[in-house]
Design a protein that fits this description.
alpha/beta; Rossmann fold; UDP-N-acetylmuramoyl-L-alanine:D-glutamate ligase; Protein-Tyrosine Phosphatase, Chain A; 16 helices
């Protein structure tokens, strides 16, 4: 039984059917696009809710990442002794090549993409997927002993793993997030930490020495730890010294990649590159391949994406900054004159954590979506908070506040589901409104 017919659930159902299983996929919606295709493949499709009959007859239950573990049917299945796993766990059991897994609150997609580029530049066969867009189940049939899988892993995916064992596991950072789904911060951190849970001494764990939560969850793991520091220097590990990303090992310092080769915007993005260099080094990728992987890489769509200028005002799309910590790091990327479009469906955290950086660099905040009252209560005594009822109004008011020579930054610190389908649709709407504004100015 596959619970949830989003992208990864559909991929899991089709993989199981190809491998000879009798599959039922169950979905709360009354319809979904791929239902007919699944039926043609011999997969039973249940719409409009998850029936108890389905849970009672299943020998294995596979969940999509969006399905909470407290779903009553899942609890009943576990009580019956049925194995309940996630799509990432399912697919990983069939992989034949080495697995590099990357998690963190912010920067997963950028770092996963960059590691994939570096490994590919070394001449190896690489498949990049997981939470980044291509479900791991879609890559199983292509997996060979010579295929390196570079996988972005979310907390939702990791909490449903039971044997998932990366050769190299990277935990970038940790901050409050997804508290609309996880019961508390400790549960969210525990889910992330499962990336290390099944590693062995001949595996590698790459950890952020500057992050207390990451370090606390790495002390008792079986894997060999490799340290990196986005901000400081290390006696043993990867960091930035002067104009170089370096590796220190005892008294020796090895210069690996010049900072000037990094084409990404933002200090936090440079930290992601340090992490990627650490992973690539462990994976025996040479310096020339790392430089080739960096060449021309200016980031992902909706992640610190330059959108252009209107009347001297810069516009930057960081729609993927869906938590407070991510928004803080985005704002820190600019010296001053920042007008932040902030808000949406709140996922937890505290907007007050933005006060210091906004006091230093902010000019105004444009508050949008369901969280307008929270934004106003947290920040209005510090900085002008201007409310907007649509993305068009948000862009127009932000432009007015940023003139002259300011920066308009979409860094919402919230989910998008109050106004949009996802962060990508929100980012696209922002770019469309900037393009429209450019035409009238």
């Amino acid at each position: 039984m596959v619970v949830g017919a989003a992208r990864s659930g559909v991929a899991a159902a089709e993989l199981l059917a190809r491998r000879g299983a009798r599959v039922l996929i169950t979905e709360r919606r009354d319809s979904f696009e791929q239902a007919s295709r699944l039926r043609e493949a011999g997969i039973e499709v249940e719409l409009g809710g998850h029936s108890q009959r389905a849970f009672d007859t299943a020998d294995l239950v596979v969940t999509s990442p969006g399905v909470p573990p407290e779903e009553p049917g899942l609890l009943a299945a576990r009580r019956r002794g049925v194995e309940v796993i996630g799509e990432l766990e399912l697919a990983s059991r069939w992989l034949r090549g080495p697995l590099i897994a990357i998690t963190g609150t912010k920067g997963k997609s950028t770092t996963t993409t960059l590691v994939g580029r570096m490994v590919a530049a070394a001449g190896r066969t690489v498949l990049v997927g997981g939470n980044i867009g291509v479900p791991l189940s879609l890559q199983v049939d292509e997996s060979t002993p010579d295929t390196t899988h570079v996988v972005e892993a979310s907390s939702f995916q990791l909490e449903a793993t039971t044997t998932f064992r990366p050769w190299i596991a990277l935990w970038l950072n940790f901050a409050d997030d997804h508290l609309d789904r996880h019961p508390d911060v400790a549960a969210y951190a525990a889910a992330k930490a499962r990336i290390f849970a099944h590693q062995q001494p001949d595996d590698w764990a790459v950890v952020n020495v500057d992050d207390k939560v990451v370090m606390a969850h790495s002390y008792d793991i079986a894997a060999t730890r490799v340290m990196f520091s986005p901000a400081g220097t290390l006696d043993d590990g990867f960091s930035i010294e002067g104009e170089w990303i370096v590796r220190r090992a005892g008294a020796a310092t090895h210069q690996i990649v010049p900072v000037g080769a990094v084409e990404l915007t933002g200090r936090h993005m440079l930290g992601n590159v340090v992490a990627a260099v650490a992973v690539a080094t462990v994976a025996d990728v040479g310096r020339d391949a790392m430089l080739e992987g960096l060449r021309g890489f200016r980031g992902l769509e909706h992640t610190m994406e330059p959108v252009g200028r209107v009347g001297g005002v810069r516009f930057v799309n960081d729609s993927k900054a869906t938590n407070v910590e991510a928004a803080r790091r985005s704002i820190e990327s600019f010296a001053n004159g920042v007008v932040v479009i902030l808000g949406g469906r709140f996922k937890g955290g505290d907007f007050r954590d933005l006060r210091e950086v906004l006091e230093e660099r902010g000019r105004a905040v444009i508050a949008i979506g369901e969280s307008i009252p929270l934004v106003r209560d947290a920040l209005a005594d510090l900085i002008p908070v201007i409310e907007a009822a649509s993305m068009r109004e948000a862009v127009e008011r932000a432009h007015e506040a940023a003139v002259p020579n300011g920066v308009v930054l979409l860094a919402p610190a919230c989910a998008s589901f109050d106004w949009f389908r996802d962060y990508a649709e929100r980012g696209k709407a922002f770019k469309e409104e900037v393009a429209r504004l450019r035409e009238v100015h």
